[in-house]
Amino acid sequence: LSCGKQGADIVFALDASYSIWPVHFQKQLQFVVNVVEQFPIGAKQSDFHVAIVTYSENITVHFNLRDFIHKHQLKKAVMRITQYSPGGTYTHKALEYIRRQMFTVRNGGRTYSDKIVVVITDGLSQDPKATRTEAARAHYEGIQIFAIGVGAGVDKHELEMIASSPPRNHVFTVDNYSILNSIKRKVARETCKVPIRRDKPRSDIDPSIVYSNRKSKQSKTLHLYPAPLMNPTQRERIKKIYYLITTKTVLIPKGATYRGDKQGQTNGLSRLYRPQCVTGTYLIDPERIKECGGKPADVYFLLDSSSSIWQPDFKKELSFVEHVMDLFNTENSNTKIALVTFSDKVQPVISLGSYNKSKVNEVLSRPEIYLTGGETDTAKAIKYVRENGFQGPLARKGVAQIMVVLTDGQSRDYNSTVRESRLTHQAGIYVFAIGIGKDADYKELKQIASDPDINFVFRVDVFDALDSIKDILVFKTCEGEFSKIYLLPENSDYLLLPTRLQP
User: Fold this and answer.
1) What average pLDDT values come out for the chain (503 residues) when binned by 10 residues?
2) pTM higher than 0.90 for the full model?
3) 3-class DSSP assignment, residue 403
4) Rounded CA separation 331/336 (Å)
5) Would 198 be classed as within a structural domain?
6) Are residues 226 and 331 in the same domain?
7) How many angstroms separate the CA atoms of 124 and 209, rounded?
């Protein structure tokens, strides 16, 4: 099996919980050997490196990515693995450990290789909410995950939450361990097809330090500013330092050091704070962002269907909507999803609450949802949804009203788009703007989106990368207090400098 010029670092996560019989555990090992047999294992950049962990209540690393560059030695090491430390199926612990540790340079991770995880399980995880969160974090960091479910006890929905998108390429199920090897070629083939260095979601950040002073009419915020590390000692001790000057609520993740928060009025940043170190402090409870799907919201997707969009790319827009919807709780009417397409005319496709999830998926797959062609009249689409989408018997009062605008270029009338966007913001509707490709106008995206830009503007280089932002988009939309929370990178040091205007 030839996988091209780009190698991959693959971590197999094998279920070793109490539900796994020893004979079935051996079949997992044999499956890994049979899959590895099809890969080019070696020391070249284009070769594959393999690591294995087993998980139950505890995580056991059997070997790292750097340990074997000869295939025959690797296969022998796999078959020597024994099952021990049984317990529950703590899938979230495995995902978290792999994300944090297995792809590090120290453990053999390579900078320019794809990061791939293959998870095998025979049942529901011990903590589904935590599993969903850890999978989302891994997706956000560009790790491709394949999920393999064995037997009748697996939860297909959870497998899809664990796996990368689309599920049809990343989720595999078999009836029992005896036929696990029947999918070895398909797993190897799909693993080989992982796109090279997928784009991570990104929002542009103003790289200047801005803070309030006595003459300011309104406080300004520096969202994230990576501070340079000037000497070797600092570079060895700290991965990154971020300055955050803000009036907003901030979540400090695990592994971070919080320093601050002394208010002051000065022209010099060095005199703006007096540091005090509180390691491991959380300013808000992280549980508030772990489960995002159940918050009530009315969400309208506005999809660009103008002449600049090719039909395959339009299908990727529809697929993105479908995958985002899968992360929301739409079954009990907490979240309602609606959809329009737009070019120089607006085409309603799905109205709020008119269908359940399965019916929406059916509608999205219909061939009659097609490209209308024409110019990109973004203003008309925003106005239509504001005036019609959140009105009528299906619209709800007291829930968040959200627009998600996807476009690949400039609108036909910039001034009209800015005007309609401002009216929408004034109506209390939150607007996310997603620009796709090099022709998307970032200045216009910022005008379309709600404030702050870092929470509401996304850009991806190609349509294929849309799915890489689905998890973080759901995190942003479901919290409710959209502009009041920043989710910061893990394992960094922070200087938090709250700013307030002086009377």
Assistant:
1) 70 90 90 91 89 94 94 95 82 95 92 90 88 88 91 87 89 86 83 56 34 34 38 42 46 46 35 31 36 64 86 81 69 74 88 69 65 84 92 74 88 92 89 85 90 78 65 56 42 44 31
2) no
3) strand
4) 9
5) no
6) no
7) 47
Domain count, the chain: 3
Residues 59 and 186 in one domain: yes
Is 465 found in the same domain as 357?
Answer: yes
Residue among 362, 376, 317 at smallest CA distance from 350: 362
The set of residues, in sequence order, having a beta carbon less than 8 Å from that of 1 and lying 6+ positions away, is 38, 39, 40, 188, 189, 192
- Output the CA angle 212-218-222, nearest 5 degrees: 50
Residue 34 and residue 137 in one domain: yes
Are residues 466 and 491 both part of a single domain?
no
Query: What range defines the domain where residue 52 resides?
Result: 8-192
Residue in 478, 474, 428, 475 with CA at minimum distance from that of residue 450? 428
Nearest alpha carbon to residue 421 among 371, 470, 462, 457: 457
Q: Are residues 156 and 42 in the same domain?
A: yes
pLDDT in the model for residue 11: 97
- 199 lies in a domain? no
Q: What pLDDT was estimated at residue 279?
A: 30
pLDDT of residue 393: 72
Domain of 464, CATH number, reads 3.40.50.410
pLDDT at residue 397, as a whole number: 75
Q: Select from 10, 53, 31, 63 the least CA-distant residue to 148.
A: 31
Residue 133 backbone class (left: φ over 0; alpha: ψ -120 to 50; beta: rest): alpha
Cβ 475 vs Cβ 289: under 8 Å: yes
In this structure, the answer to whether residues 177 and 243 fall within a common structural domain is: no
pLDDT value at residue 3: 62
Looking up tokens 């919980």 gives: 17
CA 126 to chain centre: 22
Does residue 382 form part of some domain? yes
Hey, how many other C-beta atoms are within 10 angstroms of the C-beta on 262? 14
**Size of the chain in residues:** 503
Helix (H, G, I), strand (E, B) or coil at 407: strand
User: Which helix (H) or strand (E) element contains residue 74?
Assistant: helix 71-79
**What single string gives the DSSP state of each residue in 307-370?**
TTS-HHHHHHHHHHHHHHHHHS--TTSSEEEEEEEESSSEEEEE-TTSS-HHHHHHHHT-TT--
User: Residue 135: CA atoms inside 13 Å, Cβ hemisphere, count?
Assistant: 25
The b-or-e profile of 319-330 (16+ CB within 10 A means b, else e) is bbbbbbbbbbbb
Q: Residue 382: its pLDDT value, please?
A: 96
Residue 404 lies in a domain: yes
What is residue 107's three-state secondary structure? helix
